[in-house]
């Protein structure tokens, strides 16, 4: 629900809720209320379409009984109705529980720790509901005074801008944007050893350099087209400048179409069979499934040349769907997200744990590791390979202080944000 107008002034939902509850003090008979704490869901379950669907779950009940629904700035929904039974109110709540069943918040459903909903019988709990409304209004006003000035919204990539970026990339020197991030092996006593370097272009820095104010990853398919051009430029750069260390393994994140291109065949010729056997080609999960025929052809060609293959970009929710043997890959790169709590106490973590056992503990790389909790989680899951800013920091500490400094550094998690 949108904020309302009163006497030419905007009245936010928190104020409207409090006003409504106050008016109900003498009319509490037969009324019940429920607060659905959608604000406690993970960020990916708190997008605009989630809130619209949540509100629509109460439509049927609203038509049957006198009701009011308030959507607070936090995302919480407050539903107040007269004459409805608990069973009737539970029907839309049950649908919401099902819709968000994979969120960690719902893992405690049916227990005393269940925090998805708060129920009120206004005949006895009117004061508690009023207090909840006052608290919500206070929080909204406090956030409004502390809220920083919003940054200008980045414009999405479109075909015209894509053409401009392509022209720039075709001639620009991309070497300042090329990054190298180690994939590490964590062994006993938290000793960290580098296995190989992933070589890639920093997309964030590329966007800021060639077209500031434009989100070049906003449109998935236009961005996919752009990455093919980037692949070619990176291959050319690595080939011409000889930046691949023949004594060290490396990985490249490429499109399937790039693997089948003349540019990659020329790169392979320069790299040679010896270095190819120490290389990993990372292919995005979405790219593999988009064209299975091309993927299988590319896979067989890569294996014939001696490359290893890694499925990249696997989200926790999709990890159970990965069949490593059927895909014919050597490694699977799992992206760490907050779903993966170190206690393994939710359905997502449990399903991921089962998938890792099936795929092979020594075949999984836990990526996007930002803090010490990622290592703690990975060790509980039996994972030994890691990548992310936290391990970048550990490796820097090791270089700065010697090999003995690495285990000690692991006790102090880095707070560096993902770039």
Task: Report on the architecture of this protein.
The protein is an alpha/beta fold. It folds into two domains: 4-146, 2-Layer Sandwich (Alpha-Beta Plaits), CATH 3.30.70; 156-409, TIM Barrel (Alpha-Beta Barrel). The protein is 46% helix and 20% strand. The chain has helices at 13-23, 48-56, 59-64, 86-99, 122-146, 159-171, 203-210, 220-241, 256-259, 262-276, 285-290, 292-305, 324-327, 347-359, 372-381, 389-401, 405-409, and strands at residues 4-6, 9-11, 31-36, 66-71, 77-82, 117-121, 155-156, 178-186, 192-201, 214-215, 249-254, 279-284, 308-314, 331-335, 364-367, 385-386. The strands form four sheets. The chain has an eight-stranded mixed β-barrel, surrounded by five helices. A hairpin with a 5-residue loop joins strand 8 and strand 9 (192-201). Residues 137-162 are annotated as: Disordered. InterPro entries: EAL_sf. This is Diguanylate phosphodiesterase.
Summarize the structure.
Helices cover 46% and strands 20% of the residues. It is α/β, with parallel strands linked by helices. Helix 1 (13-23) packs antiparallel against helix 5 and helix 8 (220-241) packs across helix 10 (262-276).
Fold topology:
Blueprint: E1 4-6, E2 9-11, H1 13-23, E3 31-36, H2 48-56, H3 59-64, E4 66-71, E5 77-82, H4 86-99, E6 117-121, H5 122-146, E7 155-156, H6 159-171, E8 178-186, E9 192-201, H7 203-210, E10 214-215, H8 220-241, E11 249-254, H9 256-259, H10 262-276, E12 279-284, H11 285-290, H12 292-305, E13 308-314, H13 324-327, E14 331-335, H14 347-359, E15 364-367, H15 372-381, E16 385-386, H16 389-401, H17 405-409
Parallel strand pairs: 7-10, 9-11, 11-12, 12-13, 13-14, 14-15, 15-16
Antiparallel strand pairs: 1-2, 3-5, 3-6, 4-5, 8-9, 8-16
Helix pairs in contact: 1-5, 6-8, 8-10
């Amino acid at each position: 629900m949108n904020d309302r107008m009163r006497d030419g002034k905007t009245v936010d939902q928190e104020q409207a809720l409090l006003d409504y509850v106050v008016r109900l003090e003498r009319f509490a008979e037969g009324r019940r209320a429920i607060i659905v704490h959608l604000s406690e869901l993970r960020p990916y379950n708190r997008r605009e379409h989630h809130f619209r669907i949540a509100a629509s779950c109460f439509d049927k009940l609203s038509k049957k009984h006198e009701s009011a629904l308030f959507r607070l700035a936090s995302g919480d929904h407050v539903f107040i109705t007269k004459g409805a039974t608990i069973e009737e109110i539970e029907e839309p709540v049950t649908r919401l529980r099902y819709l968000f069943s994979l969120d960690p918040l719902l893992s405690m459903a049916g227990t005393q720790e269940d925090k998805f909903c708060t129920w009120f019988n206004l005949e006895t709990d009117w004061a508690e509901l009023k207090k909840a409304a006052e608290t919500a209004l206070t929080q909204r006003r406090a956030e409004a005074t502390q809220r920083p000035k919003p940054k200008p919204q980045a414009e999405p990539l479109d075909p015209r801008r894509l053409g401009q970026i392509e022209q720039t990339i075709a001639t620009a020197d991309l070497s300042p944007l090329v990054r190298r991030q180690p994939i590490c092996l964590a062994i006993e006593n938290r000793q960290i050893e580098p296995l190989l370097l992933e070589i890639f272009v920093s997309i964030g820095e590329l966007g800021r350099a060639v077209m500031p104010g434009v989100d070049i990853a906003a449109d998935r398919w236009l961005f996919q087209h752009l990455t093919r051009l980037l692949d070619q430029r990176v291959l050319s750069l690595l080939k011409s400048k000889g930046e691949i260390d023949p004594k060290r393994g490396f990985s490249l994140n490429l499109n399937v179409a790039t693997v089948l291109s003349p540019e990659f065949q020329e790169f392979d010729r320069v790299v040679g069979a010896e270095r190819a056997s120490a290389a990993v080609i990372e292919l995005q999960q979405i790219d593999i499934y988009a064209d299975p025929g091309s993927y299988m052809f590319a896979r067989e060609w890569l294996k014939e040349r001696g490359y290893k293959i890694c499925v990249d970009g696997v989200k926790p929710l999709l990890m159970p769907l990965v069949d490593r043997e059927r895909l014919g890959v050597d490694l699977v790169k799992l992206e760490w997200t907050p779903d993966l709590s170190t206690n393994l106490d939710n359905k997502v973590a449990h399903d991921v744990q089962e998938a890792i056992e099936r795929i092979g503990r020594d075949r999984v790389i836990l990526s996007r590791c930002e803090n010490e909790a990622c290592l703690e989680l990975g060790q509980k899951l039996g994972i030994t390979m890691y990548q992310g800013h936290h391990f970048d920091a550990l490796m820097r500490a090791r270089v700065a202080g010697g090999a003995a400094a690495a285990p000690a550094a692991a006790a102090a998690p880095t707070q560096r944000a993902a770039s």
